[in-house]
Specification:
The chain is built from 13 helices and 18 strands. With about 425 residues, the chain is an alpha/beta fold. Bound molecules: zinc ion.
């Protein structure tokens, strides 16, 4: 079975502008990539005029909710949301209930993926740093590694006790596992619900100061340096936090970091009318922070984009701002929103998407990047930059709709998703 994707332009890691190319696939593999490929007998031809063919995306920070809160999301709905957004791979976070903190829990979630996810070959899981994510006792690190956990993460909570984090890092290094943390000092964040600054004062909300993240990242970087482990800083939100990572890199410390689309696009001024769809942790910071993060993403100080997909029910998000839980969904809105806000206006090119949202995350896990070249598995997205997308309930495959883009229309749409030759999505 052959399929020819004709007249599209391929996004690569080396060119801001996609290059005109036809792509021919047979079964699971790409068998030809050239400026023009003639159709052969029995070959299905798909016209991709005007569209960009993008290596499928991969997200390192996805909160799955199964087991425990399947009313928010489950493995099937999460995988379908991923496909809807152009992702064929992701790393699940450990904060399910019970938490993913043992070898059998790792095995269990991967087995469920095999049964329930159309992209199970691309789904990996992180393991908790501490038992139950409670911060009191180390999780079963060796057993989780042996069952396939790809890194350790407390899924958004800091490990408060530095001695416990040190022990975790020492184990992790033995097993060659990266340790991922949100840089945060809980005592400084307190009960804050948004960034501490002019807007938190005017809204009368308790703030989370930038220094909470800055000191948290600095501590984790120093511990990682001391233990010789690879540290991955999740969801960096401040300019100073990013600079700390950069300075550590320059000193030769093994540290990487990620930024979310929402921290690049929004800032604390967007909270305006106490809209809980802008309540995230770390919080949306200042416009200067977003501008600095954008620059960091462009020039490689930030290694990857990760959306921190965090489904919450409408009931949960309909509480007042201070009481509502943190988190937004992100898998379905990530690519169109990055296109709308950054690629279309020319702030960065397609190479940034390929490098930081497809190749980068896979490199981080030491798995082969997906490449649109002859002989490689066919795993790509047909993205139409001229179409528009409206994120209505009917469009979203996630069970949850806690996104600031709800009912907004953005430019650019994921039209097809090809995974190992199969068309998982055809719009
Ligand atoms: Zn997260």
């Amino acid at each position: 079975m052959k399929r020819l994707y004709r007249n599209g332009r391929i996004a690569t890691d080396s060119s801001s502008e996609p290059l005109k190319c036809d792509v021919l696939i047979e079964d699971v593999r790409i068998i030809g990539v050239a400026e023009t490929i003639e159709s052969v007998d029995g070959c299905e031809v798909i016209d991709c005029s005007g569209s960009v063919i993008v290596p499928a995306l991969f997200d390192l920070n996805v909160h799955i909710r199964e087991l425990g809160r399947e009313d928010r999301e489950d493995i099937t709905s999460c995988s379908e949301a991923a496909i809807n957004g152009g992702f064929t791979g992701m790393v699940l976070q450990s904060d399910t209930n019970p938490a993913i903190d043992t070898g059998s829990a790792v095995q269990g979630v991967l087995d469920t993926c095999r049964d329930k996810s159309r992209i199970w070959q691309g789904v990996y899981t992180a393991g908790a740093i501490t038992k139950g994510g409670s911060g009191e006792e180390l999780a079963a690190i060796a057993a989780m590694k042996s069952k396939g956990a790809v890194f350790l993460s407390e899924a958004g909570d800091p490990v408060i006790n530095p001695q416990l984090l040190r022990r975790a890092m020492e184990y992790a290094r033995q097993f060659d596992l990266p340790v991922a943390t949100h840089g945060e000092v809980k005592e400084l964040s307190g009960k804050g619900s948004m960034h501490e600054g002019a807007y938190s004062y005017s809204l009368g909300l308790q703030g989370i100061p930038a220094i909470s993240e800055e000191i948290g990242i600095a501590r984790d970087v120093r511990l990682a340096e001391f233990c010789g482990v690879h540290l991955h800083v999740q969801q960096v939100s401040t300019r100073e936090g990013m600079s700390t990572v950069l300075r550590a890199k320059e000193r030769g410390i093994r540290v990487t970091c990620e930024v979310s689309p929402h921290h690049l696009i929004f800032n604390h001024s967007h909270i305006g009318n106490y809209d809980t769809h802008y309540k995230v942790n770390p919080p949306l910071r200042t416009e200067e922070d977003s501008v600095a993060l954008l620059e960091g993403l462009r020039n490689g100080w930030i290694d990857v984009v990760a959306c921190d997909h965090s489904p919450r029910t409408e009931f949960e998000k309909n509480q007042d701002f201070a009481s509502a839980p943190f988190g937004v969904t992100g898998l379905e809105t990530a690519l169109p929103s990055l296109h709308h806000h950054f690629i279309k206006p020319g702030h960065f090119g397609w190479d940034v998407i390929v490098n930081r949202y497809s190749t980068g995350p896979r490199k981080f896990l030491s798995i082969p990047p997906v490449t649109i070249k002859e002989g490689h598995l066919a795993e790509f997205v047909v993205f139409n930059p001229n179409a528009t997308v409206r994120f209505a309930r009917e469009y979203l495959r996630s069970k949850s709709i806690n996104t600031p883009f709800l009912n907004q229309t953005l430019s650019g749409q994921v039209e097809r998703v090809i995974f190992r030759g199969a068309e998982l999505l055809v719009r």
